Amino acid sequence: MGQKPSWMRESGPGWTEREPKVVYENPWILVTESRPIAPTGREALYGVVHMKNLALGVLPLHDDGTVTLVGQQRYVFGAYSWELPEGGGPVGENPLTNIQRELAEEAGLAAREWRQILSMQMSNAVTDEHCLGYLATGLHEVPPRPDENELIAVARVPFREALAQAVNGNMPDAITVALLLRAYHMAKEGELPRRLTEVML
């Protein structure tokens, strides 16, 4: 993380927590309800989804400037989703090990070089889910091992084509959009090797 500028300083009092009540729990999430005191001094009502896993995503960037995407039916939205390989791992475990596993399972790929390029809060009004995103290069194929509930398709497309589909709304998955835009910014700012920048852009 870089040094914050002066305008990003914290301002005013924080929230005063009251004992939250657990309303639901399963192996992946814990839902609580509480009535904390807001920085304004007023009582608020909050339902919070606490995630037991860290969200993880990876941009598999091939030497020719193409990226590997995966397609699958997503239950919550009831729609088919093309996105970058992603998944999760228990908080406290090595996130790199977990995203390496996801890349192999979903896309049938392993990488020689890994670089964390993204850290973001997924929806900080209702959940404490945190995401780490990685750039993977030096790719080679390995046997895929999808989860028993996953029926995954794989496509390899030019980086700019994937970026365009994310920006125009055809790939609305947040991790996918953020990682593609982050990689584009890195390429434009000279933060990637010139050979990769040339084939990406």
Write the layout of secondary structure elements.
Layout: E1 21-25, E2 29-34, E3 46-51, E4 53-60, E5 66-74, E6 79-83, E7 86-90, H1 95-107, E8 109-121, E9 130-141, E10 153-158, H2 159-167, H3 174-188, H4 194-200
Parallel strand pairs: 4-9
Antiparallel strand pairs: 1-2, 2-3, 4-7, 5-6, 5-10, 8-9
Structure, described:
By secondary structure, the chain is of the alpha+beta class. It folds into two domains: 16-50, no CATH class; 52-200, Alpha-Beta Complex (Nucleoside Triphosphate Pyrophosphohydrolase). It contains four helices and ten strands; from the N terminus they run E-E-E-E-E-E-E-H-E-E-E-H-H-H. It has helices spanning 95-107, 159-167, 174-188, 194-200; strands spanning 21-25, 29-34, 46-51, 53-60, 66-74, 79-83, 86-90, 109-121, 130-141, 153-158. The strands form three sheets. The protein has a four-stranded mixed sheet with strand order 7-4-9-8, with helices on both faces. The chain has a three-stranded antiparallel sheet with strand order 1-2-3, with no helix packed on it. Helix 2 (159-167) packs across helix 3 (174-188). The model has no long low-confidence stretch (mean pLDDT 94).
The quaternary structure here is single chain
Helical stretch tally: 4
CATH class of the largest domain: Alpha Beta
Q: What is the SS-derived class?
A: alpha+beta
Poorly predicted segments: none
- CATH architecture designation of the largest domain: Alpha-Beta Complex
Number of strands: 10
- CATH homologous superfamily heading of the largest domain: Nucleoside Triphosphate Pyrophosphohydrolase
Helix content: 10-25%
According to CATH, the fold-level topology of the largest domain is Nucleoside Triphosphate Pyrophosphohydrolase
Overall spatial form = globular
